Amino acid sequence: MVNRLGRSEGIQIINVVRRDAQVDLLKAQGADIVLNSSEAGLERELNDACHRNNTHLAFDSVAGQLTGQLLKAMPPNSRLTVFSAFSKEAIQGSPGPMIFESKTIDGFWLGPYISKQSVLKTMQLWKRAQRQISSHLKSEMRKTYLLPEVREAIRDYRDQMTGGKILLRMS
Ligand SMILES: NC(=O)c1ccc[n+]([C@@H]2O[C@H](COP(=O)([O-])OP(=O)(O)OC[C@H]3O[C@@H](n4cnc5c(N)ncnc54)[C@H](OP(=O)(O)O)[C@@H]3O)[C@@H](O)[C@H]2O)c1
C-alpha cells in the first residue's frame, strides 16, 4: 500500500522486511528498494539507501532495536513515526541522533488523530480514502471468519501475517 502511494506521489520508498520471501514479494510488485532486517549489513545498507535518497521520514511498526537503527541511518533533521510495535520490545537506540542531529521520534494512533480533525477535514480524508480504496489503498483479503470463530481467526492471523487480511464477520 505504501509503495503504491509512494509511486503515485513520486516518493521513493525504502522497504524493510524480515524474510527473503517478502523481499521477492515486494520486488515482484514493483518496489525498487527492499532490505531484509534479518541479514547482516542492514545498518550499512539502510544508511546508504537513506543518504542516497535523502530520506527524512520513516514509519515504524516494529519498534525495539529497529527504531534505533532507522533513526541512526537517516540524515540529520529526520522524523521517525512509530505506529505499532510488532517486536513487543521497548524502543532501543542511542540518544545521540536526537541530541546532535535534531532527529525526532513520535507516535501515531489513527483514532485520536481523526477525532481531533474538523468535520470538513474528516470528510475530505474519508472521500480520498474511498476514491483510492480499490487502487492505491487496496488490501488483499485472505479469509473471512464468523464472530464465534474469533480465536481461530486471531491464531490464523498470528501464524501468517503476510499475504492478505483476515476479516471478522459480525453477523
Ligand atoms: N497506529 C495506528 O493508528 C494504526 C492504524 C492501523 C494499524 N495499525 C497497526 O499497524 C500494524 C501494521 O498493520 P498492517 O495492516 O500493515 O499489518 P499486516 O497487514 O497484518 O502485516 C503485518 C506485517 O508485519 C510483519 N511483521 C510482523 N511482526 C514483525 C516483526 N516482529 N518484525 C518485522 N516484521 C514483522 C509481518 O511479516 P511476517 O509475515 O514475517 O510475520 C507482516 O508482513 C498492526 O500492528 C496494526 O495494528 C496501527
Description:
By secondary structure, this protein is of the alpha/beta class. The chain folds into 2 domains: 2-107, 3-Layer(aba) Sandwich (Rossmann fold); 117-169, no CATH class. It contains 8 helices and 7 strands. The strands form 3 sheets. Strands 3-4-5 form a 3-stranded parallel β-sheet, with helices on one face. A two-stranded parallel sheet has the order 1-2. Helix 3 packs parallel to helix 4 (65-73). The site of NADP nicotinamide-adenine-dinucleotide phosphate (NAP) has 13 residues, from loops.
Topology of this structure?
Layout: H1 2-9, E1 14-17, H2 20-28, E2 33-36, H3 42-52, E3 57-60, H4 65-73, E4 79-82, H5 96-100, E5 104-107, H6 110-115, H7 119-132, E6 141-146, H8 150-159, E7 165-169
Parallel strand pairs: 1-2, 3-4, 4-5, 6-7
Bound molecules: NADP nicotinamide-adenine-dinucleotide phosphate (NAP).
